[in-house]
Amino acid sequence: MAPKISKTSKMKVAGSKTGSWSLLARVSCPGSLNPDGSVVEVCKSCYATKGMYRFPVVKNVREHNSEDYKRDEWVDEMIKEVSKFDYFRWFDSGDIESVELALKIRSVVRGTPKVAHWLPTRSDKIVSISRVLSSSSTSVEGKIGVPFKFLSNVVIRPSADHIGLNNTEREGVNSFVIKPEDMFEAKKQGIHVCPVGVNPNQKSCDTCTACYTDQAVAYVLH
Predict the structure, then answer these.
(1) Rounded to whole angstroms, how far apart are CA atoms 20 and 200?
(2) What's the whole-model pTM score?
């Protein structure tokens, strides 16, 4: 077994090396559920359950990753692989499914200080995982350092549960999914609208790196 890094075409940053690491959507997404067990609105139309994500070759990589990260050697191997990139996105599908994974991702981020990390998640709603995201320890009894969410090379992006600019989202949400008719209001509020899927001539991030910053970003539903 070995880490399997993906290179998603839509996330290419011009002149830079960009990679990602993912799990299967839904089955690895504890934050995709409401307290009553129903699926949150955004996840009902999850892009990672459609199109190319249904192909066996894509699913196999994510199934592999779901077991691979549990190895003791995974962190060191990931640091070696992730260090090859300038920008790295966690979870173009899936999410932080366990405390173990959250702790290990933190170690990889700390071990790759020259790489800009983008970590979208709804797992911040899970108390045990939220504690790791806010923690300054590398393990439950680990060495104290800079809290995960304040590491200078990572942006943790709590993602909205609803489609649109719903004002009842939990505190800290800075990633939204909107309909085309919401674009004007998003821009009015100073929210950056992802150009991919909006501008027909832009098929990838290109020169945009907004998702690797603290800026609020909205993605048009597709």
Answers:
(1) 24
(2) 0.91
Average per-residue pLDDT for the chain: 90
Q: Which residues pair with 87 in a beta bridge?
A: 18, 116
Query: 43: exposed, middle or buried (C-beta count within 10 Å: 0-12, 13-18, 19+)?
Result: buried
Asked whether the beta carbons of 176 and 122 are under 8 A apart, the reply is no
**Contact (CB, 8 A) for 79 and 112:** yes
**For residue 3, how far is the Cα from the chain centroid?**
17
| Cβ proximity of 77 and 2 under 8 Å | yes
139 pairs with which residues across the strands? none
Q: Report residue 218 CA to chain centroid gap.
A: 14
What's the token pair of residue 219?
Answer: 């993605």
Q: What is the pLDDT of residue 144?
A: 47
CA pair distance 99, 71, nearest whole angstrom: 14
Task: List the one residue out of 13, 3, 1, 5 whose CA is nearest residue 116.
Answer: 13
pLDDT in tens, 158-209: 999 999 998 899 999 999 999 999 999 999 999 999 999 788 888 899 999 9
